[in-house]
Specification:
By secondary structure, this protein is mostly helical. It has five helices and no strands. The two termini are 39 Å apart.
């Protein structure tokens, strides 16, 4: 059982590294989108000329806010999963990763870049790794030794 625990902790370290790189790349990607917001708004306006420029700005800021909110939820769940090691947090993290992939494809359907594909690949890898750690955590919970009870004191 101790070997299994060592393997679990080693994979937990790899998971933390993966999540760090995922969040770093996603923060840089969202920062780049914010810095180049005028170009992004003009791109949306060119593809949808019936919308006003103000509407395009609101749509862009709304989608950017949604992506930032998903990033914060992803970060909180990743920290909770790594800190507590509970399988339910790994499952919730994986579900948010899949949701982020779905939202990313819907929001970026008009413009898919290499960076957005990299973020998608990292999200899917994090989802798979979180499922792996969730299963390992469940196995550890099922195979932990029973607590020993102290003998009852004589009255």
């Amino acid at each position: 059982v101790q070997d299994f625990i060592d393997i679990y902790h080693r994979h937990l370290g790899f998971f933390e590294l993966l999540v760090f790189f995922l969040l770093l790349i996603e923060v840089l990607f969202l920062a780049r989108k914010f810095v180049q917001r005028e170009n992004e708004v003009l791109f949306v306006h060119e593809n949808h000329p019936t919308l006003s420029l103000l509407s395009c700005q609101r749509i862009f800021l709304g989608t950017l806010g949604l992506e930032c909110s998903l990033l914060v939820v992803t970060l909180v769940l990743a920290v909770m999963a790594c800190w507590t090691g509970r399988p339910r947090y790994f499952k919730a993290f994986g579900d948010v990763c899949l949701g982020s992939v779905a939202v990313g494809f819907v929001l970026a359907s008009a413009r898919i870049t290499k960076v957005s594909l990299l973020v998608t690949l990292l999200l899917l890898t994090a989802w798979a790794y979180s499922n792996f750690l969730q299963r390992m955590g469940r196995i550890l919970l099922l195979n932990r030794p029973a607590p020993t009870t102290a003998p009852a004191a004589a009255v």
